Amino acid sequence: MSDCCRVPAPQVADVERCPVSRTTGKPVELLTVKALLTETALGRLSKVAHRFCPDPSCDVVYFDAERATYGRRELRVPVWQKEAFGDRTVCYCFGVSEESIRAEIQTTGRSGATQCVRAHIAAGRCACEVRNPRGACCLGDVAAAVKRVELELHGSAATLR
């Protein structure tokens, strides 16, 4: 096949990649960034589009189209995706953590965290778009955390990252 017939692979715009890890960032609302930055970091904030860097090995949490970055220490809360497995906060609205999930499983044999968060969402109580550093619903993260804690307690710890 000649080169004229090949469809080029889509390219991710440079402004969509973390300036440090080069990971494609997820768009996040400016309100989320403003709510979670420390006072000092907030003083550097500009009104351009921001993205969340999901790479757990990268210190950058937010970056913007002008290549400004905000690291883990510049946020008011620890970021679930950036912390080591153990006692991370998973749901920033209702305080669900890996430790609370672990304690519930050890006490009752199961976790109701996913159902609890789902009920709060249905009741219109969540504020993930502001409280979650990713600026998105945490329900999938909660379900993943429950599975991971169950694996830790009942499965092979070697498979945990």
Task: Describe the protein in words.
With 161 residues, this protein is α+β, with helices and mostly antiparallel strands. The chain folds into 2 domains: 61 residues, Single Sheet (N-terminal domain of TfIIb); 77 residues, no CATH class. Helices cover 32% and strands 12% of the residues. It has 6 helices and 6 strands. A 4-stranded antiparallel β-sheet has the order 1-2-3-4. The protein has a two-stranded antiparallel ribbon with strand order 5-6. A hairpin with a 7-residue loop joins strand 2 and strand 3. Helix 3 crosses helix 6 and helix 4 runs antiparallel to helix 6. The protein is globular. The C terminus is likely disordered.
Show the helix and strand layout.
Layout: E1 26-28, H1 30-36, H2 39-42, E2 50-52, E3 60-64, E4 69-71, E5 89-91, E6 96-97, H3 98-108, H4 113-122, H5 128-131, H6 139-154
Antiparallel strand pairs: 1-2, 2-3, 3-4, 5-6
Helix pairs in contact: 3-6, 4-6
Write the element-wise H/E pattern from the N-terminal end onward: EHHEEEEEHHHH
This entry's quaternary arrangement is single chain
Strand arrangement, largest sheet? 1-2-3-4
Whole-angstrom Rg? 18 Å
Mean pLDDT: 90
Number of helices: 6
The first-to-last residue Cα distance is: 43 Å
* Proportion of residues in β-strands: 5-15%
In total, the number of domains comes to 2
Structural class: alpha+beta
Give the strand tally: 6
